[in-house]
Amino acid sequence: MSILVKEHQFHLQTDHTSYIFHVMENGELGQLYYGQRIHDQAAFPELTVREEHGAIPAWRLDHPDFQPETLKQEFASLGKGDYRDPAFQITGPDGSRISEFRYRDHQILPGKQRLDDLPSTFDDSDDDAQTLIITLVDAVTDLTLTLSYAVFPHQDVIVRSAKFTNRGQSTVMLDRALSLQLDLPDANYDLLQFSGSWARERHLLRQPLRSGIQSVGSLRGASSHQQNPFIALARPDTNEDHGAALGFNLVYSGNFLDQVEVDAFGTARILTGINPTEFGWQLAAGQSFQTPEAVMSYTSAGLNQLSQQMGVFYQHHLVNPRFAQQPRPVLINNWEGTYFDFDEDKLMAIAREAKQLGIEMFVLDDGWFGHRDDDTTSLGDWDVYAAKLPNGIAHLADRIHGLDLQFGLWFEPEMISIDSDLYRAHPDWTVVAPQREMTPGRNQFVLDMANPAVVDYLYGKISKLIQAAHLDYIKWDMNRNITESFSDTLPAERQVEFAHRYMLGVYQLYARLTTAYPHVLFESCASGGGRFDLGMMYYAPQAWTSDDTDAVERLRIQYGTSYGYPLAMMGAHVSAVPNDQTGRITPLDTRAAVAYFGDLGYELDVTQCTAAEKAAIKAQVAFYQAHRELFQQGTFYRLDNPFAGDGNVGSWQVVSGDGRHAVAARYQILNQPNPAYHRLYLRGLLANQRYRVSGDDHVYFGDELMNAGLFIPHLLATTQGVEASADFSARVFTIDAID
Ligand code: DGJ
């Protein structure tokens, strides 16, 4: 049993954690505890102790110590004496914004059901999940609030969401509807956020909490390059291997808010959900609004453990089960190899060469449709560009399949170019506010995904190509954010719903395509990692991590991303040098050594490679294939943090589930003269097991590799013929058990 109920006290237990809340005297829900698992008790008097504080309102005269502002609340409203930011806000028919949701009943259901119109977690694998559903009622508006808690005991994860249903006669306005609130009794935590920009996504930033509100979020209509919905709280002394940490993420791809408020009493309120700015929802009589789901997880065993348990959870309970454990193909993508300049011969030459190198899938990127020679035209016209590919996409796909390669195609479904047949036929399908000029972004505009006709059109076009070309894979790109939010299909009073309705349209298109064509592997992309979130991962099991393919930049981007997402979600490609984003020249082996830790691909014109480079790529692909299960499904450990100190070194490791096989890699950005002594302390091995490490004759015990570490010799630059610079170096070690 993971859900223990006693006299209106709810104790959600996972293998290692407890989450406890109860019905308070006023009928609302109060939080008691979230952390390391504790024994169940009939009551927890120590956790409900109250002290009366001066100069703040109390619930009733005869309850002077029941001061909402000082209570740990479960899902708080504003207006009855709790002045912290609330989890929701509703404007009633008379304009009043007061709500009092009181406990009515609860149900415990086996498993975890998917949500209807939103990406969500599930329990198809019968992993002992249970769902607690609590119904609360506001008597004045006759609204019900349903709080859902899905408990996944073995990954120490609880998934939460809220649903508002209007059972009254009049329409009310939902002004704010977040997914998760958690009130912690102290604020002695660091906030870990993952911030950046295009080509510099998800850099780790760790700072202590302080009084007031700290938040990350997006108002771009996408989860964004700039901030990621994953955040963590860690005790100041928590590191990768030890200490308490809490992780929060949102199963959503649009505007979001993650916020921590530290109040006057030193408590911390975490809120996660749809960003209330640019949100509102008219709830007419009889209608419901379901929030996206939020995931929360706790561990006392450090940040590696937090990432691992959340990652295993996603692979089992969020990612499409058809692909979650399936080996992901090593692909070649023509984007950086050709950009818009290709024809069938050129593509076939690349594909043939790629096949020789052991690559398994060919992906045709941007530029195959309409009359697209640059980024100014044709988005929306998803028919082949005959001048480039006179024989059509199906013909090209047949030839690629004939080489025994899989074939994938790039789309950017949500976008439209002014110079397109689609725009000429349906200018009204473009997102623009009345009498306002459209703000361009990358020479393109956004389609109104809140309009069902747009979703139907895109479904028809993409379906036709999937069928004609027998597509194995689709890269779904999205290269600009929304401006002039407005939909011709919504009445004035519902325009505030646009941002969320846009996302619902995107999800509907994904749902229809993945249902009709279940064999197609989707990779999501948004100018690289601009929509790297759990909402996308529900439909597209992997995402293009960043447009930045420079090995040095990728080390940091993938390291930061790994806090919140497992390696199988990260597309990682080897590209040519000088790198197109940074101009940096890094060794081919270093580029591969970074890209191994993800879903490996190549993104260069392999026909231009020298014989030595081709031999190296062939060896890299074979190495990756030999260790693919480790790289895609292994347990990942961060070892040396490239965001720490002078940032010159990073290292990480993957280990098999049985602890018998591992691959570790250490990266050095700049070679230093006479450098510090360095050892690599491995993790996750079997202490009493003997191992061999590649390039080394010594036989090690696991405990030696983990505690004494592996000596990393200094790279010496020779004074004669320094054709191989020791800058940007990487060393990859395989560690295998021997009997
Ligand atoms: C942005 C993506 O991130 C790139 O990989 C590429 O697909 C381009 N768009 C194509 O326009």
TrEMBL record:
Keyword match Ion transport: no
Enzyme class: hydrolase
Entry annotated with the keyword Hydrolase: yes
Alphabetized InterPro entries for the sequence: Aldolase_TIM, Alpga-gal_N_sf, Alpha-glycosidase_related, GH, Glyco_hydro_27/36_CS, Glyco_hydro_36, Glyco_hydro_36_C, Glyco_hydro_36_N
Catalysed reactions, as listed in the record: Hydrolysis of terminal, non-reducing alpha-D-galactose residues in alpha-D-galactosides, including galactose oligosaccharides, galactomannans and galactolipids
EC number: 3.2.1.22
Keywords: Glycosidase, Hydrolase
Transmembrane region(s): none
Glycosyl hydrolase family 36 N-terminal domain boundaries: 27-284
A Pfam family: Glyco_hydro_36C
Glycosyl hydrolase family 36 C-terminal domain boundaries: 651-734
Stated family: Belongs to the glycosyl hydrolase 36 family.
Entry protein name: Alpha-galactosidase
Classification of source organism: Bacteria, Bacillati, Bacillota, Bacilli, Lactobacillales
